[in-house]
Amino acid sequence: MANIGGKKIFIPKPPDKGSFPLDHESECKAVMIEYLKCLNDHNCDNSSCRPLAKDYLKCRMDKELMAKEDFKVLGFKDNSDMNSSDNQKKH
Description:
By secondary structure, this protein is mainly α. Helices cover 33% and strands 7% of the residues. It contains 3 helices and 2 strands. Strands 1-2 form a two-stranded antiparallel ribbon. A hairpin with a 2-residue loop joins strand 1 and strand 2 (7-9). Helix 1 runs antiparallel to helix 2 (50-62). The longest helix is centred in the middle third of the chain and has 13 residues, at 29-41.
């Protein structure tokens, strides 16, 4: 916020990671829908759906809808803790 002439004015700041393109071609929509269904099935407990969230981010990176980033930086543990949504689908 800036104080100009006694008025506080909000000055927007871009996101830390920058902007990213929307998925206009629905390239990752199936994974997104699976993740949202998981959230619904687990009463919005996102820890139960983390493998699907990781799959969604991987899809976005693979389709160049976001910059490639190490999953540890995105808050995920190493691959041995959550390899994919295969564990989720067994439940």
